[in-house]
Every structure is written in C-alpha cells, then in structure tokens.
C-alpha cells in the first residue's frame, strides 16, 4: 500500500506536560477515522434517506482496513523494517516469579532483545498514573519484577523482541503452551492489590414519588466504604469521629466522583451517617415485613459470569521511537485515541533515558465493544518501542493472547431482597449488594460496580432502596469497560426476580410490572428524575397484547403434545439502560463556502456503530444537504482554544465556580467513544451547530431571496418565521415558499457577510451547560454550549474579518455561564432508553439444550436518525445477550483464560442458528413528537433478552435459574431433581 501523505498532513492535537502531540491522517490508506478515504455522495438519496452506511463501500471492498493490518513500511516516514514482540506471562499467582528460561528455543530462535522489569525500572519506563484515573488504574508494573508474585493470571513477565518476522513467529509458536519457560520460586500465596472501592446508594422517598425524600444520594450523599478484608465497612449511624473512606471513584459512565478521602470525610461525614441511619430504617422494615403476612419478602442470590468481548480485532499496536528527533510515533487500535495520546504524554514526560518532545499518533479503525476503552495495551506498545534498536516494534495479540490478556466483562455476585404488598403488588423496598470481581487491575471496576447498583432498579419505582456495591481485587483477568457496563449483570437478575415475585403473588408478570413501572417525573434510586417520559407503561401494554404472550399457555400445550421430549416456554423482561457518562462533550466545526460546499470536522470516532453516518444525516435534516467534506475523530480545534483539568467527575462546586471565570475553561474537552453516547450527547452538538446556522444564516439568506423581485417577492404576501423552515432535497423550503438550493443560500449568505461557519463545544453533566454569547450582528445569544467561535462570510466588513484571529474564526468569549451543579454527579444517570423482549423457546429434556425459536423486541429509540443502524444494533445486541444467557462463560482463575490455553475452540459464541435470526421481529415506538431527541441504544438492546430467556426456561421446565449462563448441563441437572 502506498500513500501520498506528507508532514503537512499531520495536524496538531495539543500539548500535554510540555510534549507536543500530533494526530496523523492517512487518506490513501484509510487507516484513520478522521479521514476514512475518498468520499462519495451515493450513500445518501436526494431526499436524505440513507441507502447504506457512509463507510459501507470501503468496508465491503476491503478499502477500509483496521489498525492491525499495518506494518511500518505502510506508514509514511517510518522505517521499512519492522520488529515484532510478544510476552511471556505468569500463570502461577501463588509463587514468586523467579526468571525465564528460553533454552527450548535453541540458538536460532533466541530473541534480539529480552525485556524485563529491571530494564524498564532502570530506564524510568513506568505504568502511567494520572490523578484523574486514580492509583493503580493500569496496575503497578508493565512487567512483573523478579521476586514478586503476579497480581493476576496472565500478567506479563518478559517481552521478547525479534527483528524479523519468521523467527518471531516460530519462537512464538514454540513457546505458546510451554509451561517451563517461566520459573517460579518461593510460595507466597495470593498477593492482590487493595480492593478498588465500595459505595452505597440509600433512598427513603416521601409519601408520593414526587414528594421530597427523607434521604437521597442526589440530595444528601453517596455513602463511601472501607474494607475489612473483602467485606465493605460503612460509617456508623451514631457519630464517634470522622469516617474516612478509602474508596476512590474512577471516571465512569455516570456517577459521582471523589479524590481526596479526607476532604470527602469532612464534607460528607454527617450526611453519610444520616444515610446509614436511613439504611437501618430500611433493614428494620424488611425484618418487620418478614413477620407480616400481608407482605411478601423474596431474597435471592444471583451471579453473572465473566465473558470475553470477542471483538473482531484483537488488541494491537505499532510504535517507533526516533531518538534523533525525540519523536514517538504510535499506531494504535483504540476507541478514544485522544485519551491514549493524553496518557502517553504523561507516561513519557519525565523520561531521561528516552526523551520525548513530540508524539505523532495514528489511530486505525477498530471495534472493541468497550474493551479498547482505556486499555493498557497501547502503553505496552509504547514501552516496547524504546527497545527496538531503532526499529518500530509491533505487538499484536493472537486469539490465545487476547483471551489471556484482553479485558473481560465483570462477573458480579448479587444478593437481592424485595418487599411487596401482597394485596396490591406494589413494591416497597429493594435492598441489594453487588460484589464485582475486578480482576488484578483496577481499570473501571469500581465504576462498573457503581453503575450496577444504580441500574439495579430496572424500570421500577421503589419508595425505599438500599443498594450497596463493592469492586474487589482478585487474581482474575482484568475486567473493564465492556458493553453493558454493569447494567446487564444487575438488571438481568432483577428481571428474573420480578417474575418470581409475580408467581408468588399469583399475578401476571407483565401486570405486576405495570403496577410498579416508573412514570414521568418519578425519581430513580439516587433521587434523580430522568429525561422525558420513560414510556414503560406503553411498552408493557404492547408486550401484554402480543400473540407470543397472549397465547403462551395454549401454545405450550399444543407444542409439547406434538414434540415429545421438548418443553415449550415464553418469557418476558423489560429494562431501561442509561446512556452517557456524566461528563459528555461535543466539539465540531460546521462551515460552508460561497459555492455551497459544506465542511464538517467532528470529534466523533467511528467504532462500528455508524456514528459517522448519523452525524451527517443530522446536518442534512436541518440544512437540506449533507457535508461535502466530513472529517471525523478530530481532536484539535484551533478555533476553540479550550483548557480543562480533566477531572469532571471529582470537581467541587467551589472549584467549578472558580474555573468557570475563565472563558476558555470547560469541565472536559473531548468525549470518550463509549456509553452509547454518540447519537444523543455527541450528536447534540451536531444538531446545535446546524440549528445555529439554520436560524442565524440560512433564514436571513432565504428571507432575502424570497423577498427579492417585484412587490417584495413571494414572501411579502404571507407570514413566515425561522421555525417554518424545512429541509428539502438539496436545500431549504417551507411556509409554502419555492425551495431554494443550498448553493444559492450559501452564495447569498456570503454576499451578505453573514456567519458562514460555527465551531462549538457542549458539555452535559446530566444537564446541559448554557452561556450567553454576544455575537456581532446577532446580539446576545443564550445557547446550550460553553464555547463557540464563528466565521463571517466573504463580504463581511473588514472589522469583522479582523476578529477572525483564532484558527480563522472569531472566538466569542462567553458570559453568564451556567454549568450543571457538581452535586449532579450524585444523580447517577438521567438519560435512559427502555427496551423489552419476548422470547419463545423449547428445551430438549434429554440434552438440556435450549433452542430459541423466536423473539420479539420492543424499543423506544426516540427520533431515529438512521433506521438501518438501529436495526443492526438491535440484531447484534440480541445475539450478544443470548450468548450471555445460554453459553458464553469464562472461569475466573486457574482454569480460565489467564492460563493461556483458551481460544474459540473452548469458548462458544452464538451463531445464526442459536439466535432465531430468520424469525426475529421488533417494534420501535414512534417518537412522542417530531422534536423528541434520539436515544442511545447500542447497549440496552442486548439486556432484556438475557432475563427473558431465563424466564422462558422457567416457563418451560418450572425451574428458576439465578446463576448465568443457563447451560445445558444446569438444565439437565434441574430436570433430574
């Protein structure tokens, strides 16, 4: 592959810790999503309907390639010759690591370089640690020091580097299952890092859902815990000194943030103690209910297993340290390249042995289901390249290595107690504990644990709740930000429990859900009120009237009579999944020239969801034309010279008020590509930018055109406002006016010197920041943005053009900025998407095998941007959920993937025949109005099918399962009882 790229094609990302960081574009190679190859307009029909994904042709023809496909010779300016490396890893976590033995390789396959911890330590190459990520986020050491015991199975102990591929590949194959290459010494027993954190969310509501609560996290405090061994400890209800929690919240997809335990103790000691008193009241109520025949108390233990993300592309990276220019060149597969660049800069900033003054980072296309979000793998790649003897070093997991080293979905043990009134079926109390197995590196484990607890209520209103969680350090393989992020684990068990409660009450399972479903304005278990109408009752009504549900008993009799040895069942579950992180941002630039050519530069990174397609459709829907030039994954906006402290989750109100005085300060600059945040949160900025141009540029230009000609033109006889504008194929119409091609509007806008470009930045902490901006010619505009810059048209006065000194734009300093209160960190989440699923299946009573015959999904996606993308997410998510429910499972310790022997021959993924691919159906609720926003849905679609499958199995054979997956062996054992 060849490329015409040159040094001028590299664009500046920014400066971190005194190091200049650059992002590269590879237009000919299609390696980087900021420029995904030559564009075509054929993907979108003239009416704005999408015929196929923007990147579809490049994908199916092989022009769109992954980071894994590149070698140094494919990368401009890199050396032709490529070095390769692989790890030796510890598979013993109870004996100290001694040394390695490579004698089995013989003289011909010895590596050119053997890298051990002592080498890295001597040269100051250390695991990055940033204050906002927390101590131990990426673990303690890249390579295990001699004399130390591995904190987790599969921890690397040495890196072997080869200057040629053939010897590398032969040596790797020779050592793949070799158990004698790593030598161990004294027995130490397990030595694990400190546990990652404990938190508790207690709420006692008022007499009605809308009444002020007696205690709620958003109003009062989240309760932070310490540990006695692996058991969380909490503040005492009676004050006897300040309780200083060690639990430190890591940045995550929704929730609060603490950094200084003493400060937290001083600020929250009293409300935390009140929270524990409230927890005591709840516990007393549960005990009283156990002795009250009018109450039903159901307590169950559940388990959700560890699984592998099984992304198409295993972890990989390629890096080259050019000592002559002190430049670090990196090609990575990552969901958030900006985050990798930022952490890499801090990782190398003080290194005297390998001084780095500039980082040039190229991000290839990738898909990770969350597993490439804040992975340590890119930093292993960077560490390795310092020892390539001038050659780039490539690390690329094969599937054995990916199972052993790649991040997993957390396994969680759960203990739930639910109290309901027997007569009304109304829920009164939910108490639960979620024990999250975080493995041997912290990563986002504490965050996932918290999200599990805050999601546990599913779609129900509970007047009283006590939801505690802990993230425990173990020797298991690292678990991190996988799709579902704790919600799949927690809500699946809740939904299984709801069905049992319905059975014990003698009530239809959907009817029980209707009586307890959250409605508009009802607070969640943190006391926050979600955005808009949850539409739970509407979805439940649709499910209850579906033929699969209505006819389930008749069909059961009929099917089992016709199929001896098989049991028929139908199950249902409904959940709602949060989307967003609690620190969601958007940054983009949208402009057009006098010829009507639209350019969009956008921060969104494509990770397989179709986000790059959707952002362009949003522009087309407002302006009547999609961008002619679209650049995605953009990280530098010279027009928006912003600064941030990178701690949006932990900031205090006092700090925020102080920082906000600086018009260049924002709580966070760029978003992570995760948490289903692209269509609503990241797309929010896209819609605001297009709306700004529509109201302030397109409208006056269109007015001028419609008002030209005799007698004041066609507009003079009527009345029209900007709200009457409508996108038409290729331009703008509305109000009965003759449609105008966008090119004509653009020409007129430039002639009038109007605003012809806007760059803006938006921030949400479960509420959008707003500010006033005094824009020349437009006056003061109050906008849901915290930074904006504008560009004026070609015929604008020189006085305005002189203001365009910031990246060619006029940066408008804000006033009266209103950032969301820091207290909203305790809200947990407020943006949700509901989803439900009906599953029809049969169970083979001889083998225990489950056959999914049919499933019907219900989803409220809001205003759909691209229907085909929603359908694709729906179908893919269903398959992932069925795999979690029935077959995917990884042992946690010595028999698990950390031993290096796992591949897809041992790990079964669902196939088309397992997921009823040809019979599945779905219903998408129409949006409430045309102004309803789109909703994030990539994660929620896989969750309800898990519990619906479990409930269907119960309907089939009469046994309830709370430990996932429900395998054939478990079913066979149940049938023999």
Automatic annotation (TrEMBL):
One matching Pfam family: MoCoBD_1
InterPro entries for the chain: Ald_Oxase/Xan_DH_a/b_sf, Ald_Oxase/xanthine_DH-like, AldOxase/xan_DH_MoCoBD1, AldOxase/xan_DH_MoCoBD2, AldOxase/xan_DH_Mopterin-bd_sf, TAT_signal
Domain (Aldehyde oxidase/xanthine dehydrogenase second molybdopterin binding): residue spans on this chain: 807-915
Gene Ontology MF, one: iron ion binding
Record-annotated Aldehyde oxidase/xanthine dehydrogenase first molybdopterin binding domain positions: 293-517
PANTHER family recorded: ALDEHYDE OXIDOREDUCTASE MOLYBDENUM-BINDING SUBUNIT PAOC (PTHR11908:SF123), XANTHINE DEHYDROGENASE (PTHR11908)
Listed name of the protein: Aldehyde oxidase
């Amino acid at each position: 592959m060849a490329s015409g790229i040159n040094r001028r094609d590299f664009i500046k990302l920014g400066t971190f810790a005194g190091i200049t960081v650059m992002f590269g574009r590879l237009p000919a190679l299609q390696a980087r999503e900021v420029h995904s190859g030559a564009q075509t307009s054929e993907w979108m029909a003239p009416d704005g309907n999408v015929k196929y994904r923007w990147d579809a042709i490049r994908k199916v023809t092989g022009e769109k390639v992954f980071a894994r496909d590149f070698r140094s010779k494919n990368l401009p300016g890199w050396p032709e010759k490529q070095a390769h490396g692989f790890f030796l890893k510890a598979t013993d976590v109870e004996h100290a690591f001694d040394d390695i033995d490579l004698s089995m390789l013989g003289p011909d396959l010895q590596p050119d370089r053997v890298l051990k911890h002592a080498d890295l330590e001597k040269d100051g190459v250390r695991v990055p640690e940033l204050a906002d990520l927390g101590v131990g986020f990426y673990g303690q050491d890249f390579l295990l020091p001699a004399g130390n015991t591995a904190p987790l199975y599969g921890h690397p102990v040495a890196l072997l580097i080869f200057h040629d591929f053939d010897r590398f590949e032969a040596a790797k194959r020779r050592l793949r299952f070799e158990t004698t290459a790593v030598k161990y010494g004294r027995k130490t027993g397990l030595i694990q890092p400190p546990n990652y954190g404990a938190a508790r969310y207690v709420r006692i509501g008022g007499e009605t859902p809308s009444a002020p609560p007696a205690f709620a996290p958003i109003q009062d405090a989240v309760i932070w815990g310490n540990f006695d061994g692996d058991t969380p400890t909490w503040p005492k209800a009676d004050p006897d000194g300040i309780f200083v929690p060690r639990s430190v919240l890591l940045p995550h997809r929704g929730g609060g943030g603490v950094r200084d335990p003493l400060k937290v103790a001083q600020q929250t000691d009293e409300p935390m103690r009140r929270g524990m008193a409230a927890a005591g009241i709840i516990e007393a109520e549960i005990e009283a209910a156990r002795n009250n025949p009018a109450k039903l108390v159901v307590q169950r233990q559940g388990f959700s297993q560890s699984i592998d993300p099984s992304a198409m592309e295993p972890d990989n990276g390629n890096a080259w340290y050019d000592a002559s220019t002190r430049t670090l060149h990196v090609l990575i597969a990552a969901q958030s390249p900006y985050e990798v660049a930022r952490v890499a800069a801090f990782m190398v900033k003080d290194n005297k042995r390998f001084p780095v003054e500039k980082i040039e980072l190229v991000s290839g296309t990738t898909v990770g289901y969350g597993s490439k979000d804040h992975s340590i793998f890119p930093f292993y790649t960077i560490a390795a390249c310092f020892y390539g003897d001038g050659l780039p070093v490539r690390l690329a997991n094969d599937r054995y290595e990916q199972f052993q080293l790649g991040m997993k979905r957390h396994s969680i043990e759960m203990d739930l107690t639910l109290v309901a009134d027997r007569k009304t079926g109304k829920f009164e109390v939910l108490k639960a504990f979620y024990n999250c197995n975080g493995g041997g590196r912290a990563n986002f484990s504490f965050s996932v644990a918290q999200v599990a607890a805050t999601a546990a209520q599913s779609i129900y209103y509970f007047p009283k709740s006590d939801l505690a969680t802990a993230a425990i350090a173990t020797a298991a393989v690292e678990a991190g930000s996988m799709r579902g992020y704790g919600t799949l684990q927690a809500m699946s068990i809740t939904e299984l429990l709801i069905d049992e409660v319905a059975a014990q009450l003698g009530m239809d399972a959907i009817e029980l859900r209707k009586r307890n479903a959250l409605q508009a304005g009802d607070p969640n278990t943190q006391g926050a009120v979600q955005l808009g109408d949850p539409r739970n009752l509407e979805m439940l009504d649709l499910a209850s009237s579906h033929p699969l549900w209505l006819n389930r008993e008749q069909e059961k009799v009929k099917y089992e009579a016709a199929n001896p040895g098989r049991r028929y069942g139908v199950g249902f579950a409904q959940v709602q999944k949060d989307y967003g992180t609690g620190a969601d941002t958007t940054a983009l630039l949208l402009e057009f020239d006098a010829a009507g050519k639209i350019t969009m530069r956008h921060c969104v990174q494509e990770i397989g969801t179709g986000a790059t397609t959707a952002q362009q459709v949003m522009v087309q829907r407002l302006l009547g034309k999609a961008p002619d030039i679209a650049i995605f994954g953009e990280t530098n906006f010279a027009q928006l010279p912003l600064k941030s402290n990178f701690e949006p989750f932990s900031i205090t109100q006092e700090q925020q008020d102080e920082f906000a005085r600086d018009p260049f300060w924002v709580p966070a600059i760029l978003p992570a590509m995760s948490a289903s945040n692209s269509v609503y949160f990241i797309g929010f900025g896209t819609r605001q930018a297009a709306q700004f141009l529509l109201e302030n540029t397109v409208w006056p230009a269109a007015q001028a055109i419609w008002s030209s000609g005799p007698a004041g033109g066609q507009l003079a006889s009527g009345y029209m406002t900007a709200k009457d504008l409508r996108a038409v194929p290729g331009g703008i119409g509305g109000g009965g006016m003759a449609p105008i091609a966008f090119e004509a509007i653009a020409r007129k806008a430039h002639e009038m010197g109007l605003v012809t470009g806007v760059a803006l930045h938006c921030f949400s902490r479960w509420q959008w920041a707003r500010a006033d901006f005094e824009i020349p010619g437009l006056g003061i505009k109050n906008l849901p943005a915290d930074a904006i810059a504008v560009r004026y048209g070609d015929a604008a006065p020189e006085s305005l053009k002189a203001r365009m000194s910031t990246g060619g734009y006029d940066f408008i300093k804000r006033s009266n900025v209103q950032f969301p209160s820091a207290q909203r960190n305790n809200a947990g989440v407020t943006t949700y998407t509901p989803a439900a699923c009906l599953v029809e299946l049969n169970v083979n009573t001889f083998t225990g095998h489950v056959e999914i015959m049919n499933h019907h999904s219900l989803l409220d996606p809001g205003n759909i941007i691209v229907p085909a993308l929603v359908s694709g997410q729906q179908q893919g998510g269903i398959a992932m959920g069925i795999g979690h429910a029935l077959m995917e499972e990884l042992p946690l310790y010595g028999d698990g993937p950390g031993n290096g022997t796992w591949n897809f021959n041992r790990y079964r993924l669902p196939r088309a025949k397992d997921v009823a691919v040809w019979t599945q159906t779905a219903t998408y609720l129409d949006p409430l109005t045309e102004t309803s926003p789109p909703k994030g849905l990539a994660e929620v679609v896989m969750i309800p099918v898990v519990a619906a499958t479990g409930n269907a199995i119960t309907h089939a054979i009469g046994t309830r399962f709370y430990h996932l997956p429900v395998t054939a062996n478990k079913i066979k054992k149940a049938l023999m009882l």
